[in-house]
Amino acid sequence: MTLIKEFIFDPPNFLYLIFIFVLTYISQFYFRYFTRQHPIPGPIPFPLIGNFETYHPNSSQWARELQKKYGDIFEVYSGGLFTLNNRQIWISNASLTDKLLSPYTNNNFPYRTTENEGLDKMDMTSKGIVFNRNVNSWAYNRRIVVQVLMAPKFLKTAVKNTEELFFEMEKHWEKLGYLNDAKEQEIELDLVNWMRRFMTDSVFNLTTNTKSYALLNYFNTFNTLNKDERESNNDHFLRESEKFVNYIRLHFVACIFFKDTPKILRTILPANRKKSRELLDVVAWLNSKVLELIRERKKEIEKADPDEELSADMLTLLLTINTNRDPKYVKTTDKDNLIDARPMSEDEVRENVYEIMGGGIDTTANTFCYVVYYLTHYPEVRQKMLQEMEKIFGKDMNREITYEDLNKLNYCGAIIKEVSRLMPTVSVLFRVSAKPDEIAGYKFLANTQFFINVPAIQMHPSHWNQPEKFDPDRFMDSEQQIPKNALLHFGGGARVCMGKQLAILQLKALMVLLYRKYDVELVDMSGGIKYSSTVVNHCEELPVKIKVKHSA
Length: 552
Ligand code: HEM
Hints:
alpha+beta, CATH 1.10.630.10, 2 domains, 52% helix, heme
């Protein structure tokens, strides 16, 4: 025994053993890599690290470079001790997405992530929609939330709400003295900052029928002079609402942190332990606040007269669906329909409320900024858009906007599509296989992760004529068939975005409200869009000059 110890701890021998260990590890790694089942082209990974590209934040950029080198289907590895377990298959051609984006809820790619202990800890893999891996529960939640989001009453309320909030935002601009005092009635502002607050107030109000005061709080950061006005707005209440809004964002940060940080790193590293604790505190605080909101609303519903029309916000609709306050409710004893016909639990309502808030705020705010950016660069498109608006609203810049009006704005719809084709707000779609399968002649095991490369597909020369050209008319021309799954800015298949109709309505309403009354230019016309890219392309800033039109 002593002899063995002496041999091992003798410095030259010790180094030699380490060398042997590393060599064995590397050899077995590459042996496993080069003899892997069903190989696909792709860059060779490094032990422990995987492919360096996967650490680069701008995934759409490196994925397009790898597409050029390896073709429309390639594989990369994202690191870890047993790297070959973290295989990612990137798909960059619409014709290869048929199975992945199948519309059937029982398709072979029902999950967005592989099993994930971190998301389990966040209680997200068996509730809600976005990360729910329990297919029955996901389908139940999705069916109910879609029913709410598509209800004409809800969509009409959303149009009204967008209009009212826009008027509020204009009042803030005016109060700041920009519009009233400036001779040319011109203001300069960072549009993305205003739009984030705008969408926060909008989605919060549509979800809970209460105010989040994000626009007012933002206005107050400029309004340092007018202290009396600030105090009359009840600072304490505003602080609480600001906390709520910030925590909803942190909830998203928490999801990504728990999803991507292995348990061992979360528990061993002191900085991560602290972060885990802080994020879990955020989640606990939010849970208690949302549950408070839910219980208050339940009491209001119980107290309401049976004939009284209830508010059309998401919370009320989720709490009443499949109850006797639901106008479409039919009591069923049919065993197969029983799951669908039950009301939602408080926990389910809570999770859906978070997800709607998380899914609907930044996405729509960013997309609107990209629309504005493109319209400033293409005056002929802007002109054509104004003509379409004039046909519907006439010259009255204050005429009320209705849901029916917005549905007639086809060219505005085409602009949104074309902007989102060139600058998709969400750049990757995730799918995971439930069973072994085959795509493009390659066989895959169950639990394989697929990453659908949205920018590459939306610019693919075999799907689009002159893919680099900004041309909204390509969506007006019925002759020109857009290949299936070539436009994926809202995703596709069974997990397609559920807020799509709502987002399009809100974007069109914002286009009308801004452009019929104002001329909008970029402060710096020569610069490109400033954005950072992870899964969501976040607009970093968009300084614009907004000028009241002379005839206003
Ligand atoms: C312009 C705005 C928006 C964009 C660009 C956008 C984009 C997307 C994309 C790309 C997906 C993934 C779809 C897939 O994997 O195939 C998605 C999913 C989702 N979106 Fe949106 N979205 C927007 C607005 C909204 C709004 C307003 C809401 C809610 C009110 C919302 C709620 C959701 C939800 C809940 C999912 C998950 C669906 C599922 O997993 O079944 N989104 N969205």
